[in-house]
Write a structure and sequence with these properties.
single chain; alpha/beta; six-stranded mixed sheet; 9 helices; 6 strands; 34% helix
Length: 215
Amino acid sequence: MGELILIRHGETEWSRSGRHTSHTDLPLTDLGERQARALVPLLADRKIGLTLVSPALRARRTAELAGLTSPRITPDLREWDYGGYEGVTTVEIHRTRPTWNLWTDGVTPGPEAHPGESPAQVGQRADRVLTEIRAAAETVGDADIALVAHSHFLRVLTARYLGLNPAGGTLFQLATGAVSRLGTEHGNPVITALNVALPESLFHVAAPEPPEPTG
């Protein structure tokens, strides 16, 4: 296997306003679609043997516009279940819980279908994805594996890849439409690129339409 390529989906209305978004299935904004198309040149020199995608519309659309063909929908790539904080901003939460921190405190319980997750539970999902990736590594040879998913989940996955506990994800910022890469150096897990994205001023000259899907 080559490297693990992490792609956060493009902008949605809620990501723009800072509202916690897990199960609410929002589409990309116009900017989000441009961000997704701008991934094409960032991925052009990569040999991607497998793409795993969150079930969320915003992730699937990002993969499509980025030109990633035949993605495998992977439920464990869904975003952190924010429970009772779904659709709520950190600023709003701090009005009643001034010291609240997602990475150490988790979330308040939500409805039965979306009760919320602790950092440890998200870490367990990330570990399952990493196990799936290791199993797939033999079939992709020296090609990369791409994951198209969500900010907080990918930050937890990065922490777990590096051997940190899930709360270590607080150290890694991921912008909408950004690419990061995880690899190895002398056999040790490392970050080889973090939070890479084209500036919006270059979208129209550097982001051609993605190729038509072939499969």
